[in-house]
Amino acid sequence: MTGVRIDKWLWAARFFKTRSLAAKACELGRIHSNGVAAKAAREVRVGDVLEVKTPAGEFQVEVLALSEMRGPAAAAQALYRETAASRERRQKLAEERKAAPHFEALREGKPSKRDRRLLGRLRGRG
């Protein structure tokens, strides 16, 4: 096997849960192969450098092996090697997210009696 469609490879390497999500990411320009925006049908070869933007983060990986079949996570991780710079950048962003202040989610529905009293105090009403 000399090449595999990039959407199939991204799905097999477990960057995306479905192949259609991988194809959509290619369509939106979130996948770059060797510095060029990649379409879903572009072939990936061993040695290619891919830049993948997912909700989990941005990855820069080198392709080590090809696969069209989705297997266990351990087998998927053997398909690529993440660059050291990419790993450091993701860890730095994760630390920044942890250090950011955490806000309580807004409550659904009407405020309770206690909430109304607190709002009144904040607004300067007795």
Notes on the protein architecture:
There is one protein chain. The protein has 126 residues and is α+β, with helices and mostly antiparallel strands. The protein has one domain: Roll (Structural Genomics Hypothetical 15.5 Kd Protein In mrcA-pckA Intergenic Region, Chain A). The protein contains 5 helices and 7 strands, in the order E-H-H-E-E-E-E-E-H-E-H-H. The protein has a 5-stranded antiparallel beta sheet. Helix 1 packs across helix 2 (19-27). The protein starts with a strand and ends with a helix.
Blueprint of the fold:
Blueprint: E1 4-5, H1 6-12, H2 19-27, E2 31-33, E3 36-37, E4 43-44, E5 49-54, E6 57-63, H3 73-77, E7 80-82, H4 84-99, H5 113-122
Keywords, separated by commas or semicolons:
elongated, two-stranded antiparallel ribbon, 37% helix, 126 residues, Structural Genomics Hypothetical 15.5 Kd Protein In mrcA-pckA Intergenic Region, Chain A, 5-stranded antiparallel sheet, single chain, alpha+beta, 7 strands
